[in-house]
Amino acid sequence: MCFKAMVIDAPGLADVGFTSLQDQWLKYAEQEKIEEQRVKILSAAAVYFGLDVDLVTRYLGYEFTVQWRNMDAIMQCVSSLIYPVDAEHIRRILTEGCPAEFDYEELHEK
User: Measured at the alpha carbon of residue 48, what is the angle toward residues 14 and 60, in degrees to the nearest 5?
Assistant: First the structure.
């Protein structure tokens, strides 16, 4: 059912502009529902980038990559609530991201 709808909707999204997605979205606190137009333009971006979510995320930049957030304020709020090692993990995630691969071995008994 979803693929059938996509086949019908996708061609119409080719002409939908999506550059407004790069603008900061500051209406979260007052938002009661997700605007249908915003879903449509995000879908248009997804179609433009061949449904490659990584490329869409890179295009969106600020909203999804933490570039516009105040990391120092976030760290000040959370640091007193968690262990220092966890605070450093959060700082690393906010500045460098998460690894795409994990290199972790766990001991187990036979």
Answer: 125
- Are 57 and 81 members of one domain? no
**85/35 same-domain check:** no
Whether the pLDDT of residue 30 is over 60: the answer is yes
**Confidence (pLDDT) at 48:** 92
CA geometry: angle 54, 55, 58, nearest 5 deg: 90
* Residue 110 placed within a domain: no
Count structural domains, the chain.
Answer: 2
Overall average pLDDT of the 75-100 stretch: 88
Q: In the structure encoding, which two tokens stand for residue 67, read together?
A: 């570039």
Cβ–Cβ under 8 Å, residues 57 and 65: yes
